[in-house]
Structures are given as structure tokens and as C-alpha cells.
Target: Mannose-1-phosphate guanylyltransferase
Amino acid sequence: MLNIVLCGGAGKRLWPLSAGDTPKQFIKFGKEESLYIKTIRRNMPLCDKTSVLTNQKYSDQVDKQLTAAKLSADIILESSCKGTASSIIIACLMYPETIILATPSDHEINNDEAYQDSVKRARDFAEKGSVVVFGIESEKPEDRFGYIQADSENVIAFHEKPDSETALKYMSDGYLINSGILCFNSDVMLCELIKYLPDQVAIARKVIENIRSGRATHRLCGRFMGEMTTYSIDSSVLEKSDKLKCVKGIKGWRDVGTYESIYEHRSPKVNANLSLNIGESFGCADFVDSEGCMVLNREQDVVVCGLDDVVVVEYGGKILIAKKGTDIEKALKKLDG
Model:
């Protein structure tokens, strides 16, 4: 089985940590490894080979962290981000007759045994010709994710990101969070892609025909890549396919997409104050008359005084101060404007 690590996202909701050439999957807290490297390590016991699909502007980060971790992988470089559908098309064309486990690079999963059991069940389905999605049993109503409505392993429907009230209903009805992890036979998936996105597959063939390959790095043709249209694999293919199966059972899963999710995942208890260093940093943090606050800093000392439920981030010469749960992307639009 081949692990395709999808590593092209920007993660704007974690500004200023996730910005420019260092999106969230490459961030390291203290001496921990990044989510990107953790993803590769998590799947090594299950997969014979790893291939990282990323944007060419992240190539240095991808290679540097692989080398530091003493890991090896093929690296496929896209000239532009064209969504999950194009990534899956490229993977299927490059690796025919292969069982592929496609995994986002920005997830935290803290139960390896449950994860491995789920992937093995998914691989069994994939070997029999199914395209497998992974559903997560939600611990609380989540409006940041799409949902899967399933009857045992059979997928009934996909549902878009809900509002808060609908998310509560989805949770009570037993709907599963769509993790974005997929397992499939590349030839089976390619047939589905040809059925629903024939024009995109045709362009992708030109991309592959004009690929520039080194020892372990494959640079996709920017000219033809630019002709591809951005599609989500969920809405363009999976929602229409009759080959779907759903596997659940992954425990300890987190999509590290917001500062609130980082706090929830790492805080030792409710309303505790949390301090996290970024990389090999030397900034300190202190809290006075404050509860439920989080500081992420690299160089500068930070003191939070008389505030509750506040996030303070100091990184790369930029500072964010926000209430937990704030939509940071709205603020970024003002900065960009």
C-alpha cells in the first residue's frame, strides 16, 4: 500500500503561525515533530512507500524536514493548488494498480492501534474494489467539517459544513465527521474520475507526460497544471459514486485547523492556561488573574493579565491577540485589503 500525503494546504486560520512558506503542517511545537512528519511516521507500519504531494513553494520545507527526520519519500511538486480532485487524479495516473491511502498532512491522531485497525479494514474493502472514506464519531457539534451519513459501512449521503444547530442534529443522529482520509485501488478510482471528471483526467495525462523527474522528486508541468480546474474530490466524484464504503473507529483524531482546536487538544484541563513554544524558541509566557488563555510564542516574552479565553500568538515579527473561537480569516481580509 502507498501513502499519498496531501501536503499543499495553506491553513490561513492559524495566522501568523501558518503563513507564507510555512503552513500549519510544517509547524513544530517545542521539540516535537511537525504534523507532516507525524503523518508519515503514523503510516509507515501500514504502507510500503510514501509519496508527498505538495506545492512547489513548500519543496524546501518538505525536503528539509524529511532529511532531519531521517525519512525518505517521493516528492511530487505542483505549480499551483488545484484542489483535492486534481491531487487524486495525479496520484492515480502516477501509481497504477496500487492500493493508495491518501491522508491529509495536518491531522493529529493519538491512538495508533485504533487507527491501524481502521486502515486495515479500509484496505480490505479497497482490495475488493471499493473507494473507502473514513468517518470520525464526533465528540461535540462541529460546524467546521462536512459530515457522512452512513448505515454501518454503507454511505447514504454526504452533507456540507452545517450551521451550529444542524451540527448538533447531525451529532445526535450519529452522522460522522468526514476526515478527508481515503483508501482505494488507483485503477478503480481512476475509472470513477474518468466517469465524472473526464476533461480533468485528460489534462492530467498531459501533466504526467511532461513531468520532470529527478532521483526522488517529480515536478509537474506548470503549463498544463494551470489548465486544470479546482474541484473537491468529495463533491465532484465521491458524492456521485456507487463504490463507496465508510470505515469508522479512529480515536483521538483532531484536525488542527484553529487555535481553539489546538487549545482543546493540548490543554490539561478545562479553563487551564496553556503556553506553547514554537520550534526551538526562547520566549516565556506568564498568566496573571487569567483563565482559559493560550500563548504561542517564539522570541518575545508574553504576559496575559486579567483576561479570559484569549489567544496570543507571537511569530515571525507578527502578533495576534484574539478571543478563542474568533474567525481570524475575516481579520486577514482587512490586512490584505
Observations:
- The CA atoms of residues 260 and 324 lie 6 Å apart.
- The first helix runs from residue 35 to 43.
- The domain at 2-257 is CATH 3.90.550.10 (Spore Coat Polysaccharide Biosynthesis Protein SpsA; Chain A).
